[in-house]
Amino acid sequence: MGIEGHVPDTDTRLQELVLDSRDVRDFLAELAVLAAARLSGPGNTIHSGVTVLRRKRPEVVACSDAVAATLDELQNSFGDGPCLTALRTGTTILAADLSTEQRWTPYVRAAAGQGVSSILAVPLDLAGEAEAVLNLYSDRVDGFSGEDITTVEAFAGQAASSLRLVLRITHLRETRNDLAAAMQSRTVIDMAVGAIMAENRCSSDEAFAILTRASNARNVKLREVAAAVVTSIAGQQQVPTYFDE
Mind listing the GO molecular function terms for this protein (predicted)? Predict the structure, then answer.
């Protein structure tokens, strides 16, 4: 395959991706393109995909091109393959020649039908924050030598460090957004409780109980019932709430 050795500016480029990316999906999309560019060799174009699994969050998949996207989608549809195996086991998986490969038969046949001859899947160590794998596809038999695999694993280590940082930044952003939403919801509920107290001359506990009963009876979220109460009093379609970040 002839993958180039360690490229000195890979770390610099990865740092730029961290700074420039808006979210995890954006970072992964650029990472997939970077991997394909860095790991392709003379006469052997590499197609790249990256899959990330986070707890209680949707799976994120990014690919360098349509070929990689098709291959990743096929593997997910079959529910098995070298990349998913690498993800589950945390070990590098090589399928050197799809024409003789005995594992993952349905997927391998489909992948070979797309013109792919060898696949390399390398897990990214995210220190328990998530699970991820770098998927590389070659149209050449034995497209990944032992030296190539070492180079790819080194690249994966560099990428994992940057991805961990992106995941932490994203987690902080999501936590902030969740807190802001909770505070805004609390504000609307407090306003509705105050309005009910004034109209019914009752305590805050009694007013909150009235809101809760209305929410249960209508099978509508408490915040939505509260917003409707405030809207009916304020005469506004949208209730203003404020949260100082």
Answer: kinase activity; RNA binding
